Amino acid sequence: MHPREGWSEDGTRRGVSRRNFLRQGAGAGLLLTGLGPLLEACGTSTTTTGSAGSTTAIPLPRPNNPVTWPIFKGNHAIASGMKPERDATLQIFNWVAYVNPQSLKDFGKKYGCKVQVTTFNTMSEAMSKLRSGQVNFDVFMGVTVDQMGALVEGKLIQPLNHTYLTNISQAWPDFTNPFYDGKWQYTVPYTIYTTGIAWRKDHVNEDPYKMSNPWAMPWQAKYKGKVAILDDYREGISLGLMKNGIYNLNTTNAAQITTSQKELQNLLQLTNAHIDNNDYSNLPSGQIWIHHAWSGDIAGAPYYLPKGVSPKVLGYWFPPDGKGPVGNDTLTVLAGAKNPVLAHLFLDYLLDVPNALTNISFNGYMQPLTAITPQRLVKEGLLAPNLTSTAVLPSYFRRGVMELQLPAAADTLWQQAWLTVSKGI
């Protein structure tokens, strides 16, 4: 699941996310069991069946199995040197509350156009709408890397013309040849984030930076009722894996998945742990003292502290060596874009540091641009000095572990394990 999944139009998270997960995620995933025979045994690709009955192998990108996607006939990049469309309305498809409205206004003013955003709450919802052919947007924002195969093979996004994207020079060099999109033919980077452990320093005596196994920090009976883990089957099972020293967060090993399941069941029994995605608000309020958390949420958590409470009470741990969960989202231009030049310029606009800082001031999630450092974020007043650990460093992206697309049968094992833990509540 994505850090923005389950958010409402007013920019807050809905309170029944586990029910949403059961309906939108696991409930559907459990029907995939019969698809196992269609998968490549090695787990490096998955297959789809076309309308004529033929099957197509779609690779599963991995850092050790990078993929450069093909460019298909009839879906080429736009020509160079074209001027922006006039009197246009740029149509953007995005997660809820995942771009600063001021950024949209500023872009529209610069290029003399209107900007309209249509939002979605889950990636499955977004993909379903795009596949239906009944919607027509220019830019698809916040695209998760696990959807690359479906988007490219389905000809839903168009190759990029790099001549319009000069600000890519401001991004980390990793993103000019990412493993999930070799030669950045279809994507530019948007946000990047880590998953770690957040805690209230005024209530918790332990410092995860001094613990031999910080991933085990939530497993403490003395904090019963004050512990929470993310309501996310990939993040939850991954936490149980890492507590046991397993860092393959795309494992297809049933025994490892079961081990994680039992660890999480033990956690719930030991601490009566909450399962929610309200790390950004429940930790500042004091309802929770130890929360499995997303970096961008904790970066923005000081805004939810009661009046008079210092941000210094908040802490966020992510392994200093970068060996922890890291993820990033991308920006793409849709194949049916009516305003492809403006779409390219919008991608380029968000890659420019001043514009990125404006955007970060709203959503809290860092963008992987070289000039945006923890020190710069503190100087700009966008990050509390004691929460620089929420900022993502290039080394984290290079050394971190990612939760990527799984073969369908393995994905079902993960979802079944999570349902056993959460009981579908």
Outline:
The chain has helices at residues 17-29, 101-111, 123-132, 148-153, 233-243, 254-271, 279-285, 295-299, 340-350, 353-363, 374-379, 394-399, 408-422; strands spanning 45-49, 55-59, 89-95, 114-120, 139-144, 188-200, 227-229, 274-275, 290-294, 314-317, 326-333. By secondary structure, the chain is an alpha/beta fold.
Account of the protein in words:
- This protein is α/β, with parallel strands linked by helices.
- It folds into 2 domains: about 15-190 and about 330-380 and about 395-400, Periplasmic binding protein-like II (D-Maltodextrin-Binding Protein, domain 2, 3-Layer(aba) Sandwich); about 195-325 and about 405-420, Periplasmic binding protein-like II (D-Maltodextrin-Binding Protein, domain 2), CATH 3.40.190.10.
- It contains 13 helices and 11 strands.
- It has helices spanning about 15-30, 100-110, 125-130, 150-155, 235-245, 255-270, 280-285, 295-300, 340-350, 355-365, 375-380, 395-400, 410-420; strands spanning about 45-50, 55-60, 90-95, 115-120, 140-145, 190-200, 225-230, 275, 290-295, 315, 325-335.
- The strands form 2 sheets. Strands 3, 4, 5, 6, 7, 8, 9, 10 and 11 form a 9-stranded mixed beta sheet that branches. The protein has a two-stranded antiparallel ribbon with strand order 1-2.
- Helix 2 (about 100-110) links the parallel strand 3 and strand 4.
- The longest helix has 18 residues, at about 255-270.
- The model is unreliable at about 15-40 and about 50-55 (pLDDT under 50).
